[in-house]
Write a structure and sequence with these properties.
The complex is a heterodimer of chains A (about 110) and B (about 110). With about 110 residues, chain A is mainly beta. Chain A has no helices and eleven strands. In chain A, strands 2, 4, 5, 6, 9, 10 and 11 form a seven-stranded mixed β-sheet that branches. In chain A, strands 1-3-8-7 form a four-stranded antiparallel β-sheet, with no helix packed on it. Chain A is globular and about 40 Å long. Chain B is an all-beta fold and about 110 residues long. Helices cover about 0% and strands about 55% of the residues of chain B. In chain B, strands 2, 4, 5, 9, 10 and 11 form a six-stranded mixed β-sheet that branches. In chain B, strands 1-3-8-7-6 form a five-stranded antiparallel β-sheet, with no helix packed on it. The N and C termini of chain B lie far apart (about 40 Å). At the A-B interface, strand 5 and strand 10 of A face strand 5, strand 9 and strand 10 of B.
Chain lengths: ~110, ~110
């Protein structure tokens, strides 16, 4: 059982390019999340999805979009990358959005935008 | 808005006890989580508190006081493998997590 996977592991991207970070979970979790982690700032929520077919904006959604066509996949797209989007991106999932359900995190994608 | 504060760094000796404090001011509260994150790795779940009091789980314990907006994570019998960042996260009215910046704990031999 893989749990939650992300691809690519790392990427260097030229500013202005489009990039999609992939996230897949095989735990049949309803809720999925995208965070970015920057030094000194901690994890910040970009977008989330409480169930397949629905998405919502987190704390820092600008410049990012997501889709949730099915339960397993939750891709994050940067339409036109900028250097301030250089960060480590973590995808996470939980059984459901409510209560004390722990979030399981993927291994992360280290993105550098030049 | 959310405001979650925890110390940036702590150092302790192998076998000792360390207490990591977390204070929060958030719009709504549906529980507080602690996660552990080793350098270069993903965060992993340690504990969840929604009621006041102490939750003990092996060498790790977590405490919550909702009236004071305060929690702590207690690590006992420290081991070298406990060197990591410890993240405090509060679940808001919509069950979304807001994270503190994390506390880096270094365990010395």
């Amino acid at each position: 059982i893989a749990g939650i996977t992300q691809a690519p592991t790392s990427q260097i991207l030229a500013a202005g390019r489009r990039m999609t970070l992939r996230c897949t979970q095989d735990m049949r979790h309803n809720a999925m999340y995208w965070y970015r982690q920057d030094l000194g700032l901690g994890l910040r929520l970009i977008h989330y999805s409480n169930t397949a077919g629905t998405t919502g904006k987190g704390e820092v959604p600008d410049g990012y979009s997501v889709s949730r066509a099915n339960t397993d996949d939750f891709p994050l797209t940067l339409a036109s990358a900028v250097p301030s989007q250089t960060s480590v991106y973590f995808c996470a999932s939980s059984v459901s959005a409510g209560g004390g359900n722990e979030q399981f995190f993927g291994p992360g994608t280290r993105l550098t935008v030049l | 808005g959310q405001n979650i504060d925890q110390p940036t760094e702590m150092t302790a000796t192998e076998g000792a006890i360390v207490q990591i404090n977390c204070t929060y001011q958030t719009s709504g509260f549906n529980g507080l989580f602690w996660y552990q994150q080793h350098a270069g790795e993903a965060p992993t779940f340690l504990s969840y508190n929604v009621l006041d009091g102490l939750e003990e789980k092996g060498r790790f314990s977590s405490f919550l006081s909702r009236s004071k907006g305060y929690s702590y994570l207690l690590l006992k019998e420290l081991q070298m493998k406990d060197s990591a960042s410890y993240l405090c996260a509060v679940s808001d009215n919509d069950y979304k997590l807001s994270f503190g910046a994390g506390t880096t704990v270094t365990v010395r031999a």
